Structure prediction request, 220 residues.
Amino acid sequence: MVEEHKRNRLLMIEAMLAIGALIFFSAIIVDRFLPSATVPVGDSKSPQIVGFVPVEIMSQPIDLVATESRSFILFTDREQLFNLTSLRISGEVIGSGRAEIVLENGLGQELWTYSNIKQKQGNMITGMAVNEEDNNLPTEKDELKNQTWLIITPGDAIAENPEKQLTDGRETVTGKFQNSCTDTCYMNMKMQKGLYYTLKIRVDAGTQVNINELKYTIDV
Prediction:
């Protein structure tokens, strides 16, 4: 009885050793003869994720003059719905008074586009040349740049003075300004025939604003 129990234990041990040896040699065979899967790191052929979507900007000459505070109507004659995604304005301020340009977005908000009140820094006036480098502006798309997407017509004179005040350290800037945008650098305003928005030019008495160019981006 005891001898039989010993034989069973020996057989069990031999079986466990055989299974262990089989697992060991199987692992060696798999490691040696089967290719291992690798994950490429930094492969130049792998698709790259770039967080920039190029857009196109349209340049449109225009001739608007405001010798007093006045509203202008911004609209389009296109049946196709599109989004106005940025608006930059170039022009000139004549006179030493305050001048500002705002766009009403149809939601009861005024989007600031330009103000000639700037913060002084020593003998320099910040923003005297309101000019964005061309390298920071998108390029014009050939099939779009010669098309007119926006129309601005004169509205009525308005009894509104510029809102920004001359406080300590601030002065008014006269002369030309280019590609000016504050709240309208990035926006999303629906445009379609039948939709109208108000562009306001507010000036002090004796000050004149001329607008000679629009630059804007659209999402068609």
